[in-house]
Design goal:
mainly alpha
C-alpha cells in the first residue's frame, strides 16, 4: 500500500535526524534544528520510535505493487524497526528490563550502534524515495 510506503519514508527520515543530528547537521541544519526541538518534547522520541516500528512491521506485511513479497521492502522495514527500537529503548531508559539479559543485548544491538541505525534509516528513506521499484529497497 502506498500509505505505508510514504509513512516508511517519512518515519525513516525523521528517525535518521533524531539519531544522528551531529552528522546530518552539517548538510541540513534547519531540519536538524526542527527535529531537535521536537525531540526535546516529552514523549516525542518514544512516539516516533513506536511509529517507526509499527510502520516497519506493516511494511513487511503489506506489499507495494511490483515488489516481491517480503523481499521488496525488507531494508526500509528493518531500518524503521531498528531505528524506532533505538528511540524507544533510549526514551524509556531501559526501565522495563533493567538488569535482565535482554536489556543488555538490546542496549548493545541498538543504543551502542545508534549511528549505524541512523545512517541506515537515512539511506533507506532517500533510496526508497528516489528508486521506488528497485528490489531490496
Amino acid at each position: 500500500m502506498y500509505q505505508f510506503y510514504f509513512l516508511s519514508i517519512l518515519c525513516n527520515f525523521l528517525i535518521a535526524f533524531a539519531l544522528v543530528p551531529e552528522i546530518l547537521g552539517r548538510w541540513a541544519p534547519a531540519i536538524t534544528e526542527c527535529v531537535g526541538r521536537f525531540m526535546e518534547k516529552n514523549g516525542f522520541p518514544v512516539g516516533l520510535g513506536i511509529a517507526g516500528m509499527v510502520v516497519g512491521v506493516f511494511k513487511l506485511l503489506s506489499v507495494t505493487p511490483g515488489d516481491l513479497v517480503l523481499l521488496g521492502d525488507f531494508f526500509p522495514a528493518l531500518a524503521g524497526i531498528a531505528g524506532g527500537g533505538t528511540l524507544v529503548f533510549e526514551g524509556r531508559g531501559g526501565v522495563s528490563g533493567r538488569g535482565s539479559p535482554a536489556s543488555g543485548i538490546l542496549e548493545n544491538l541498538l543504543v551502542k550502534r545508534r549511528d549505524l541505525w541512523g545512517i541506515a534509516a537515512l539511506l533507506s528513506a532517500v533510496l526508497h524515495f528516489f528508486f521506488p521499484s528497485v528490489l531490496f529497497l
